[in-house]
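Aim 2 progress update. The chain analyzed this quarter is reproduced below.
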Amino acid sequence: MKELDRSWKNCLRMWKWISENLPDWFSESSNDIKDFVIDALKQNWLKKNKFTKKVAQDCFFCAYDVKHGNECESCPAGLVKRGFHCTDLNYHFTYNPVEFYNEIVRLNSKRRSQCLNWNQIKLTGRIGRGF
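Predicted structure tokens:
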């Protein structure tokens, strides 16, 4: 599996688990408490899934970015959606983790359909549905 695909796979798995394991009172919490809870959940997921090496910011997208450019320019989600940033108030990873998960699921779907379209063009030599 390619490194970029692996970062998507692990990020999606982690944020799905986080979204499913938020405490009932999370949405009513202060931002400081949300920061603490999300950090704890990320570290818990990494430990449960046996990630023993340090992952930058406990984030697979950040780890990929640090290795390939940094300053969020190589963020895997940003490669799909120009201007993506994990702290966008519409889907801030700490303050709205369920929406963050939904956003990266949507972007992954877009990424995968773009890959399928590109592979089809390479196979057929033309744009369209027919083979």
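The chain has one domain: 3-124. The mean pLDDT is 88. These observations will guide the mutagenesis experiments scheduled for the next reporting period.
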